[in-house]
Every structure is written in structure tokens, then in C-alpha cells.
Amino acid sequence: MIPDLHMSVYDEGERNALGDAMDVMARAFDPVFGEAWTLPQLAGVMMMPGTWLTIARLDAAPLGFALVRSVLDECELLLLAVDPIWRGRGIGETLLRHSLRTARQRGITSMNLEVRATNKAVKLYEKTGFEYVHRRPGYYRGNDGQLHDALSFRIDMLA
């Protein structure tokens, strides 16, 4: 864990952190899988009510981010990314736990997510208490045309 790691939360409509998220995303997502979003996609989601973006920073440098969208008492983790040179230091887990705390503070009782079955983050989600819901065979198509299964997870936060 990095002691001076700071979490900055940006709510819907706030656009001043989009560049930092895009910088992390460009480094974090392997282009083979085609999972990185474009700036217009990210900006469009950030305009939706109930959306928030959390940026993990060391000093002013962005190291990772989490993007969450909520509707009523449920939310979905849309993206979680950590700069590859900072992986393995607890930043992803810190972002995830911070997102869960933020969701609870906003009256949200469950969080859902979907992830490529071969993504190493699956272990993080299971460690954090997310439960497997189902598999969607061939849901994602990589830039190379290869199909990848998606796994859906959910955590209930009533406690």
C-alpha cells in the first residue's frame, strides 16, 4: 500500500478529471482486447446522473481510476484501471474499496460489474467479496476478432 495515495471523487458533469482517466486508460488497457473507452464515451457517461469517477493520485500524478454509475439503490462498476507500472501495490483494491464506501454513503445497497473472464482483476473482485453471478460466452470481441467470455459479479452492501 502507498501511504500518500489520495482519492479524488468527481461527480456527474465534472469534466476536469477526464484527461487523467484517459491517460491511465491508454496505459492500462491492452489494445488487443479493445476495452479502452474513447474520450467522448467517457465524457458521455460522466454526464449521466448518478455517475462518479474516482482518481487515485500520488502527489498530482494519476495512478488509477474507478468509474461507477448508479440508478436508485444499485450501481455498476463500469471501469477500474491502474497504470501498469503501479500494479501490485494495492491501488486497484484501494480504488475498489473506496468505490464501495462511496456507494454505501450514497445509499446504494449493491454493486454489479462485468469483466473479461481472463482478466487478472477477477481475483481482486472475489477477494473483495463479489460473488459470481453468471458467464456470457463470447460477449467481448477483441480487436484481433477473438471472442472472450464475460463474467458478471455482484456484491450486496446491506451491512
Helix content: 25-40%
| CATH-assigned homologous superfamily of the domain at 5-113 | Gcn5-related N-acetyltransferase (GNAT)
Q: Helices and strands: which structural class?
A: alpha+beta
Task: Tell me the major beta sheet.
Answer: 7 strands, mixed
What characteristic shape results from the CA principal axes? Answer: globular
- What is the CATH architecture annotation of the domain at 5-113? 3-Layer(aba) Sandwich
- How big is the Rg? 15 Å
Uncertain stretches of 5 or more adjacent residues: none
In round numbers, the mean pLDDT is: 93
Please give the count of helices.
4
Distance between the amino and carboxyl termini: 26 Å
CATH fold call of the domain at 5-113 = Aminopeptidase
- Would you report the number of β strands? 7
Strand order of the largest sheet: 1-2-3-4-5-7-6
SSE string = EHHEEEHEHEE
Provide the CATH top-level class of the domain at 5-113.
Alpha Beta
Our estimate of the beta-strand percent is 35-45%
Keywords: Acyltransferase, Transferase
Organism: Sphingobium psychrophilum
Protein name: GNAT family N-acetyltransferase
GO molecular function, one term: acyltransferase activity, transferring groups other than amino-acyl groups
